[in-house]
Amino acid sequence: MLELRRSRDRGYDNHGWLKTYYTFSFADYYDPEHVDFGPLIVMNEERISPGKGYTHQHRDTEVLTYLIEGEMRHQDSLGNEVVLGAGSLQCMSAGTGLQHTEINAATAQDAHLLHICISPATSGLTPSYAQKRFSLDERRGSLRLLASPDGTDSSVVIHQDARVYAGLFQESQRVALELGKDRRAFLHVMRGSIAVNETRLNCGDGVKITPPDEVALQHGCAAEVIVFDLPAAPQPAKRKSTPRLKSNSTALK
Fold first, then answer.
1. Does the global pTM surpass 0.70?
2. Rg of the chain in Å (alpha carbons)
3. What CATH number is attached to the domain comprising 115?
4. Does residue 216 form part of some domain?
């Protein structure tokens, strides 16, 4: 029911201005045991130096950025320009093609973030952008819905039968995660530590969760977590137009 992915077992690259941990196979890092988890195909934990950044190009991918600490300046080929703060989630439905640039907007602090990619249920969509910042109170002691297929509870819309949650937990705060028999989940600890049932996870650790039993998130110590509620057996994306292309990136150093 619980398959641990300890922080030390992830892939890692240090480019000086960019330090990245890879939960799943990405770029030159390949682990046949951790290629993806259903439609969750990329989850990179990144630290970007002040004033540094990169440009990415994507197609047929839901690209999410969750900012843990710091500030990021976002620009994209749709004309969006915004500065993201901690607790913000942005989602780009790349669809037929989209380019974006992310730069650490701070002068002294690293930007600490998760770069996430989810396969959409349908390819060839019209590219779109959305972002929202979620307050500490919304996330404290509970799992706040950040993204969903239908925008429930003012969440950001993604084009997949998946839901993304974030929560902050301390000491006696506890929440139960219930999954249907056709669902599974992935939990990643962004900060602090927490027990999943009675298994302690520390910062950078992740766990694959499959039903049927209820899972308790408890005994948090300054814990911040992100949880992906995913279909157990996702169907291949329905093709609408051109074939899917690999993402590529250019560093802005």
1. yes
2. 17
3. 2.60.120.10
4. yes
At 138, give phi and psi (nearest 5°): -65, -30
Residue 179 lies in a domain: yes
Asked whether 220 and 194 are in contact (CB, 8 A), the reply is yes
Overall number of domains in the chain: 1
Domain residues for 153?
Answer: 2-235
Question: Would you say 136 and 169 are in contact if contact means Cβ atoms under 8 Å apart?
Answer: no
Residue 247 lies in a domain: no
Query: Would you state the pLDDT for residue 233?
Result: 72
Q: What is the C-alpha separation between 155 and 139, in angstroms, rounded?
A: 13
Query: CA-based diameter of the chain, in Å?
Result: 51
If one counts every other C-beta atom within 10 angstroms of the C-beta of residue 71, the result is: 18
What pLDDT does 153 receive?
96
Cα(65)–Cα(44) distance, rounded to whole angstroms?
10
Where the chain has pLDDT below 70, the residues are: 234-253
Q: Mean pLDDT in the chain?
A: 91
Distances, alpha carbon 154 to alpha carbons 28, 97, 134, 146, 151, in Å: 37, 26, 10, 8, 6
**Residues ≥6 apart with Cβ < 8 Å to 244:** 59, 60, 61, 123, 237
Residue type, 121: A
Amino acid 219 reads H
**Half-sphere exposure of 190 toward its Cβ, with a 13 Å CA cutoff?**
24
Q: What is the pLDDT, as a whole number, of residue 167?
A: 97
